[in-house]
Amino acid sequence: MKVFISHAYTDTPLVKKVAAGLERAGLEVWDATREILPGDNWADKVARALKESEAMVVLLTPDALRSSWVHWEIQYALGEQIYRNRLIPVLVGDPEELPKEEVPWILRRLHMIDMGEYSEEEEGINQIAQALIGTA
After folding, report:
1. Torsion sign across C-alpha atoms 70, 118, 16, 110
2. CA 114 to each of CA 27, 39, 42, 73, 131: distance values in angstroms, whole numbers, following the listed order
């Protein structure tokens, strides 16, 4: 299964950790930091990756909630049958900085993984991997 990780650019260090964990679990991950090279048409690469992916993990951070690109990627996934039951929202960070009311209403209707509930970041990443594998 090919997984697209929707995130804010400022969350790149976390994306690399999540991508590595998902790949260790046997999933294929499209990672913008590896796939988009200098001079590439960024929007074209992202659009192609969304079409080729079969699941999406949305890393919900304060910056991601303010990102119009993240909102666009979520809207795309919600409109595509291939992403049905394969859109995994993940709350990341301090709950004070990320009130659930700021999360798009449609994502609040889905089961969310809260990275803050796990004592180790790796545990949360394993939970994401298990959720994706369970949809295969």
Report:
1. negative
2. 21, 36, 29, 20, 13
| Per-residue pLDDT tens over the stretch 47-102 | 999 999 999 999 999 999 999 999 999 999 999 999 999 999 999 987 778 877 78
CB burial of residue 37 (10 Å; 0-12, 13-18, 19+): exposed
H helix or E strand, kind and range, residue 30: strand 28-30
Question: Using CA atoms, how far apart are residues 68 and 84, in angstroms rounded to an integer?
Answer: 22
Which helix or strand (DSSP H or E) is residue 87 part of?
A: strand 87-91
Report the alpha-carbon distance of residue 37 to residue 21 in Å, rounded.
Answer: 23
**pTM summary value:** 0.92
Burial of 90 (C-beta count, 10 Å sphere; 0-12/13-18/19+): buried
CA neighbours closer than 13 Å in the CB half-sphere of residue 44: 4
134: nearest Cα among 91, 74, 88: 88
CA atoms of 86 and 81, how far apart (whole Å)? 10
